[in-house]
Amino acid sequence: MRVLVCGGAGYIGSHMLPGLAAAGHQAVVFDDLSTGHREAVGDAPLVEGDLSRPGDLDAVFAGARFDAVMHFAARSLVAESVREPLAYYEHNVAGTLRLLQAMRRAGVERLVFSSTAAVYGEPRSAEIDEAHPIAPINPYGAGKAMVERMLADAARAYGLRSVSLRYFNAAGADPAAGIGESHDPETHLIPNVLRAMRGEGDGLKVYGADYPTRDGTCVRDYVHVHDLAAAHLAALDYMDSVPGAHAFNLGNGGGFSVLEVIEAARAVVGREVPYTVDARRPGDPAVLVASSALARERLGWRPAYTDIGAIIATAWAWHRNPRY
Ligand SMILES: NC(=O)c1ccc[n+]([C@@H]2O[C@H](COP(=O)([O-])OP(=O)(O)OC[C@H]3O[C@@H](n4cnc5c(N)ncnc54)[C@H](O)[C@@H]3O)[C@@H](O)[C@H]2O)c1
């Protein structure tokens, strides 16, 4: 298949590219490089363009016939979305609407969409499955839920086939391919732990040590970017045989607390992690862990990385010598 990878210069999108190549698919990256990196794209052709400009999209669809689109491009800072909700709706919702319109003009009928655990809002159960209410508590999550709704409507009206993959916390790297996580600002725990070990950044903060969890710190579900890429490939196959709009959680099913991540990083790297404990952040639930039973059953997906130390080891291999 020829696949257009929107946001393929970003963290998760770039980790999709070796997977697509290994599966024999041809990828073309469409990215405005707003948070992505040219170096992350490797050998794949890169078309620089902005989703919110229909002309940019029409040009890329006119250049080649695509069988499917994978859509990673978004802004994804929750706190920023609270401060600038209209910018987030413009970028993530209207931008995706323009993509869907351009796909329709070009006759492309398959989409894999990067959704998020943030569509669920405050968890009402220890493990979140897809039957959990969609009740986002910030504009970032609300925008992703709106896109999922558009996809459901487009499936009914036009027969657009789609799979929304609701990632929990993406983590890890592909050091062999020379790619890893590089965000500015970096809000994710594992890269910030590794930076703190290298004496970089503003110092690691643990937000809240008084949650009702096993050690008082927040518990999250970390899923390796290789496993995310494998789920996207499985989603392409799934859409071949099953029409409609589908949504699946992607997590590794086990939660790790902030202190467990810090301890695992200490064990992997062999260095102490300096940190301070700060107040809880508003809107941070105590536990966010996925049930990925549906993805296992329907997509035949099995995360290869279930051990947090193994995930951190790949991230460290990248962070000790990042190329961008
Ligand atoms: N990182 C996570 O843990 C996580 C968790 C859940 C969901 N997600 C979702 O996964 C996707 C990828 O996340 P990421 O961490 O790789 O983010 P990222 O910022 O590293 O990558 C996003 C990419 O999209 C590009 N982009 C942004 N706006 C664009 C536009 N208008 N036109 C063209 N390109 C544009 C950026 O330049 C970047 O290369 C996002 O949709 C995010 O919401 C990420």
Walk me through what this model shows.
The protein is of the alpha/beta class and 324 residues long. The protein has 2 domains: 199 residues, NAD(P)-binding Rossmann-like Domain (Rossmann fold, 3-Layer(aba) Sandwich); 114 residues, UDP-galactose 4-epimerase, domain 1, CATH 3.90.25.10. It has a 7-stranded parallel sheet, sandwiched between helices. Strands 6-15-10-13 form a 4-stranded mixed sheet. It has a two-stranded parallel sheet with strand order 8-11. The mean pLDDT is 96. The structure holds nicotinamide-adenine-dinucleotide. The site of nicotinamide-adenine-dinucleotide has 26 residues, from helix 1, strand 5 and strand 8.
